[in-house]
Amino acid sequence: MAQSSxxxxxxxxPDEPKVEEAERKVGAVLEELEDDNDMEVKDxxxxxxxDTDAQDRPVVKKxxxxxxxxxxxxxxxxx
Length: 79
What we know:
79 residues; alpha+beta; flat
């Protein structure tokens, strides 16, 4: 399989079809977020958060924190 592009933060874990599909889906959602809001994603963090279920028992859930910032305005010749 082809090497994953990017920062290589996955380490030596082999690419799997489900992982690659998830990366494509997340990438598409982030691109839509950027385009719809004229922002660029600066950082993404996946966290495990302790919550409670319906019976008030602790349960660990995944949470995603997305940091975005306004895109810099392009400076150049007026058209």
